[in-house]
Amino acid sequence: MASRVHESERRRSRDARRGRHRASAQIEPFTRGFSALGELAASGAQVSLRINDITTGEMLMSADDHVVVPTASIGKVLLLIEVAARLGDADFSGLTILDREPLDAVADSGIWQHLQAPSLPVADLAALVGATSDNLATNVLLRHIGLDAVRHRAEEIGLKRTALLDIVRDHRGPDNAPQLSVGSARELAWLFQALATGEIVDATTSRRVLAWLSLNTDLSLVASGFGLDPLAHREPDHGIQLFNKTGSGVGVRAEAGILRGPNGAVSYAVCTSYDDTELGTRLGVVDAVRILGQDLLEYVH
């Protein structure tokens, strides 16, 4: 990868690891994942990576984490933050009913488009976004809240390289934003770390966002290395608890999250952009990020 972990940082990570797992003291953490992602980058993919230890606040590993890259649906987390922050307003509660309109219609991820209900409460829409990255629910919430409000909130909490740029569209024309969202691995890992410590807006807002993210059924990328049930992992399983959001699109696979275990907790973000003309290339990306997930699991468990 273009950017490598400094030796001092890797040494600190290794020392921390030895303190937790004496039997594996000779194994440097994240070696397999870093190597797999390095091979991916050498093949022409763009890889951006950041891993933080939530307990110590220490950066454990990074690679090109400052680069702004497409993050697909990960930007929906910013919408969830704005929704969660507004639930304390007198005129905006979780039971506020919102209607879907023809202008909101969009395909791909989500289940509301397949349901008969024409209206749902705000809290249910947020749950659908957290659970299935629901595109229709996203557009309805954005129409009610406004994209500008989401952007302002992101700037207010300190994000400079991470943004939700547009509503979800089936097709992007020359007058539309080229991506649904962009971000840097550094900011995304920080964002999830701050959610874990209750520092995004306030503790109540952070808890609400994490509750919605705990419903996420997409464990196909980094989280595929954790061995969790995709449909039921809100409670700790073998001491492992996950909160994550993925982003998938043509030539884009990205994930940011929080992984807690008996021996620690990490926030992580890994974003990949690649030439999606062959299935083998995509499968190589999925395999590489799964290996990173296995390293993360070993670190916290």
Automatic annotation (TrEMBL):
<feature type="region of interest" description="Disordered">
    <location>
        <begin position="1"/>
        <end position="24"/>
    </location>
</feature>
<feature type="compositionally biased region" description="Basic and acidic residues">
    <location>
        <begin position="1"/>
        <end position="12"/>
    </location>
</feature>
<dbReference type="InterPro" id="IPR012338">
    <property type="entry name" value="Beta-lactam/transpept-like"/>
</dbReference>
<feature type="domain" description="Beta-lactamase class A catalytic">
    <location>
        <begin position="49"/>
        <end position="272"/>
    </location>
</feature>
<dbReference type="InterPro" id="IPR045155">
    <property type="entry name" value="Beta-lactam_cat"/>
</dbReference>
<protein>
    <submittedName>
        <fullName>Beta-lactamase class A</fullName>
    </submittedName>
</protein>
<dbReference type="InterPro" id="IPR000871">
    <property type="entry name" value="Beta-lactam_class-A"/>
</dbReference>
<feature type="compositionally biased region" description="Basic residues">
    <location>
        <begin position="13"/>
        <end position="23"/>
    </location>
</feature>
<dbReference type="GO" id="GO:0046677">
    <property type="term" value="P:response to antibiotic"/>
</dbReference>
<dbReference type="Pfam" id="PF13354">
    <property type="entry name" value="Beta-lactamase2"/>
</dbReference>
<dbReference type="GO" id="GO:0008800">
    <property type="term" value="F:beta-lactamase activity"/>
</dbReference>
<dbReference type="GO" id="GO:0030655">
    <property type="term" value="P:beta-lactam antibiotic catabolic process"/>
</dbReference>
